[in-house]
Amino acid sequence: MRASFRKSYGGFETLRIVEVGIPSVGATEILVRVMASSVSRTDSGVLRGKPWVFRFFTGLIRPRFTATGTDFSGIVESVGASVSKFSVGDRVYGFRDTGLGSHVEYLAVDVKEAVLTIPESASFHDAVALTEGAFYAVNFREKVDLNSDSRVLVIGATGGIGSSLTQILAAEGIWVDVVAPAAHAELVSRLGAKTCFDIGDTAALESGEIYDVVFDSVGKSRFVTCAPAIKPGGAYLSSELGNHAENLYLPIVTKFFRKKKVLFPIPTDISGSLEQVRNLNVSGKFSSVIDREFALEDISAAFEFVEKGQKVGTVVLTIS
Fold first, then answer.
1. pLDDT, tens digit, for every residue of 2-31?
2. Which residues contact residue 107 at a Cβ distance below 8 angstroms, ignoring those fewer than 6 apart?
3. Computed from CA positions of residues 276, 57, 243, 201, in that sequence, does the dihedral angle turn out positive or negative?
4. What whole-number distance in Å separates Cα of residue 107 and Cα of residue 282?
5. What is the spatial distance between Cα 120 and Cα 218, in angstroms, rounded to a whole number?
6. How many C-beta atoms lie closer than 10 Å to residue 104's C-beta?
7. Which of 135, 116, 121, 124 has its CA nearest to residue 41?
8. What is the CA radius of gyration of the chain?
9. Exposed/middle/buried for 256, CB within 10 Å: 0-12, 13-18, 19+?
10. Are 34 and 104 in contact (CB under 8 A)?
């Protein structure tokens, strides 16, 4: 089978496609013929081993998997002797934020991982767009107390996390304003945004609107600049460590010395998070947002595009 391959941590230029054997399955595993995967910022982190702390989960000296990939969608080809949850022919998808080695044609995955059946109305491409960004978005949302009277600002609403978070909040009836490229104002409106402020403009923070929470889903802002737009008792969250890793220590500082808090979500419960998003998708309250597709042979180009930081929603890698 074809598989992505790298010997060590490095850039996308080190990736190549090789022929390897189809894996056998253990008692608690299923063999999936992978139809699609995605390339995300998380994949880039696994590829490069950055930030360095990431290597405690992906391999200290060299990557645990020679293949890249954190998610997949496909068809069950065979099941292990102890597997009763899935059957041959089932359409499934799954995700692990520290890597699955899923940029391959066939993947053996333990059913203890976050593996779900694909909603009937979803394609294989749709399914992988319900994983990485949606997982982090759920964990963002669960970090704060919000209700139908809350107002939220999402910075970077067209990315994988931001487009997911906008939909999750809107599904709860929460007022959502967003910062996104003006060219995508129609898209974010469909996702549930009330107002779209053009990215790079300061209007969102100078509009006079005060928010219960500011979510930065792309890590391009700072608490100090967003604080004037946050209510006393409100919060700021970012998907990135921030300037000099300030988003790691500011939660401690602001807890004791500020009326406006910085929170840093540690993502947990992958299966529960994906199940929540799946339910929203089935009920018509969450849609996959897909930017473009790349063939497995063009995996380096897919990573290069993602690392430019301009993707909208999910970049799909077509495997089969």
1. 999 999 999 999 999 999 999 999 999 999
2. 23, 31, 32, 34, 72, 74, 100, 101
3. negative
4. 26
5. 31
6. 29
7. 135
8. 20
9. exposed
10. yes
**Contact indicator for 68, 46 with CB cutoff of 8 Å:** yes
168-202 pLDDT per residue, tens: 999 999 999 999 999 999 999 999 999 999 987 66
Query: What residue type is 106 in one-letter code?
Result: Y
Both tokens of residue 314? 């999910």
- Mention every residue, 6+ apart, whose C-beta is less than 8 A from residue 84: none
The total number of residues shown for the chain amounts to: 320
Name the token pair of 251.
């939660």
Name the pairing type of β-strands 211-216 and 151-155.
Answer: parallel
Q: What backbone phi and psi angles, to 5 degrees, belong to 201?
A: -95, 150
Alpha-carbon distance of 69 to 40, in angstroms, equals: 9
Helix (H, G, I), strand (E, B) or coil at 132: helix
The identity of residue 110, as a single letter, is: D
**H helix intervals, 39-171:** 41-48, 55-58, 124-128, 132-141, 160-171
Cβ(178)–Cβ(157) below 8 Å: yes
Q: Residues 217, 159: contact at Cβ < 8 Å? A: yes
Residue type, 189: S
The angle subtended at Cα 162 by Cα 64 and Cα 196, nearest 5°, is 160
